[in-house]
Amino acid sequence: MNVFISGLGLIGGSIAKIIAKSRVDTQITAFDIDKQNIDYLQKQNIVRYIDNFVQGAKSADIIILAASVNVIKQNLNELNKIKFDHSVLVTDVGSSKASILKMAEKLTNPKIKFLGGHPMSGSHLSGSQFSDINLFKKHYYFLVNQNATENQIDMFKALMRPANVIFKNMPASKHDDFVSLVSHLPHALIFNFMDSVSQEAKLLGVDLTLAGGGLYDTTRIAMGDAQMWTDVILNNSSKILEQLNIYEKNLQDFKHFMEEKDKDAIFSMIERANKARTEMEG
C-alpha cells in the first residue's frame, strides 16, 4: 500500500512513524517545503522524499494532508486536477473541519473519498525532529466522514493502530464548536495574554525569566507555531469570536467582583474553576 503524507512537521512526522510501525505493508512517501523535516525522517528510513505534491499524490492509495489548514485547502484544490484511475482515500489533520469539508465537497473525481480527521494532541514544538510515535497515545482522534467507505476507514485505523488513539466520530459543526472552546479560544487568549504581559514587563523594566512556575505553565502554548495558529484562528474565527464574547462577559463580571471587593463571588468562581479542572483529570 502506498501512503503519501503532505506535511512532515510534528503531526505529519508522528503519523509517519506510527504507520511505519503498523503491521500493514506500506511504502511511505512524503513532501514538505522544509527539507529538514524530510531529511530527519529519511535518515531513519521512515519516508521516501517526493519533490512535489502532485507526484506523490497520484500514485498513492492513502493521502494524508498534515500541513496547516490553508495548505490543506490548497492540496484539496490540487487533487481536483489529478486524474486518478484508482480509488484513493484522502484524510487530513486540520483543526477547522467545516471549512476543510466545504473544500473537500468540491472534489469531483468519484475515485477520491474524503475522511476528515483531527488528533486532539500536539505540542508547542514543531518539526519532524520532535515527532513521536506516542504523541497521540490515549488521546481522542476525531473523524468527520464525508464519503469514505467502511473498508477505507478500517484500513486507516489499522495504519494508526500503533498510536493507541481513541477514535470518535463527530459532525464538522459540532467538532468546530468543541475545538474552538477547548483549544482555539485558549490559544488565542494565551497568545494575547503573553504579548500583553511581555509589553508591560518591558515598560516596567521587569525580567520575565524571574517569573515563577505559574507563568511558565500557563503560557507554554504561546510558543506554538505562529503561521499555523494564524491559519487556525482565521479559519475558525466565527466560532472563536462567539466564545470570546462569552469570555469577555465573564471577565467583566470578574472585574466587577474585584472592584466591589466581593469576596464570596471571587471565592465561588475560583472554587468552580478548581472543581472543573480537577474533574478533567478523571
From TrEMBL:
Which residues lie in coiled coils? none
* Superkingdom in the source lineage: Bacteria
Q: Which residues form the Prephenate/arogenate dehydrogenase domain?
A: 1-282
Protein's pathway: Amino-acid biosynthesis
Among Pfam families, the record links this protein to: PDH_C, PDH_N
Q: Name one GO biological process term.
A: tyrosine biosynthetic process
> A single GO molecular function, which one?
prephenate dehydrogenase (NAD+) activity
Q: Which UniProt keywords apply?
A: Oxidoreductase
Q: Which PROSITE patterns match?
A: PDH_ADH
Q: Which PANTHER family match?
A: PREPHENATE DEHYDROGENASE (PTHR21363), PREPHENATE DEHYDROGENASE [NADP(+)] (PTHR21363:SF0)
Protein family (similarity comment): Belongs to the prephenate/arogenate dehydrogenase family.
UniProt protein name = Prephenate dehydrogenase
Species name: Apilactobacillus ozensis DSM 23829 = JCM 17196
Q: What is the lineage of its organism?
A: Bacteria, Bacillati, Bacillota, Bacilli, Lactobacillales
